[in-house]
Specification:
- There is one protein chain.
- By secondary structure, the protein is α+β, with helices and mostly antiparallel strands.
- It has 2 domains: about 55 residues; about 110 residues, Macroglobulin (MG2) domain (Immunoglobulin-like), CATH 2.60.40.1930.
- About 30% of the residues lie in helices and about 30% in strands.
- The chain contains 2 helices and 9 strands.
- The chain has a 5-stranded mixed beta sheet with strand order 3-9-8-5-6, with no helix packed on it. The chain has a 4-stranded antiparallel beta sheet with strand order 1-2-4-7, with no helix packed on it.
- The longest helix is centred in the first third of the chain and has 37 residues.
Length: about 190
Amino acid sequence: MNSLKIVIPIFVAITIVIIIFNLTQNEVSEERVLELKNSSEINKLMDKIKMDKIKNDELENPFIPKEREWITSGPFKIDRSEYMLGEKIFVNIDGLQINEKGKVVFLRPINNTHYSSYHNMIFDGTGQRNNYYFTPDLSIISGICNTDDLIGNWKVVFQGTEYSDLKFKVTEEIIPGNEKRYESVC
């Protein structure tokens, strides 16, 4: 009976603390949502997105992203077989074994028979990294001066594994709004 006198007040106190904690968390969350809704920075960004959409829709050939295809080699996947300049190349690693380690090497074409390393991504089966993306860009430092240096049939090699290479194509088309990004830099 004495233990019941102690347990009941402790239970009531814990319940009150939990209720107060939940109410404060809800108020804090609601305040943050209101801050976001009222933020002029977000409103400006939303206006820019709306204007970009209107401009895109008014184009003779508006940009509409292609469906993802998910081309695979073992646990490695890329989302498409063909990309426009300005599109992100998504890489997903699903089901990598714990002992699998190596490097994903993206090779850009130099000509019909030779490639140059463009981008490397280390992978390790003991890590948690499953998704990755990048966008092929011009670079003075890398000697990638104009779009001709990016256009063509690329290859993805998985060093340290027996997985087959993946191939994809970068076309000369540029996503609307990215034209300045692909003006010659050298």
